[in-house]
Amino acid sequence: MKYDIIIPYYNNAELTKACIESVINNSRNYRIIASSDGSTSDQIKAIGTALE
What we know:
Pfam families: Glycos_transf_2 (PF00535). By secondary structure, the protein is an alpha+beta fold. The chain has one domain (about 5-50). It has helices spanning about 15-25, 40-50; strands at about 5-10, 30-35. The protein has a two-stranded parallel sheet.
């Protein structure tokens, strides 16, 4: 079974990256969908880097 994990975030790149890393380290067969709610472009870039 494949899971979609949706992670909403707003200008808290460190906490969001920790959440993404936790999903990566503890899950199999997943797709992460990170959704910004008006974050600054620097925050969005940091999350994009964590997802790569």
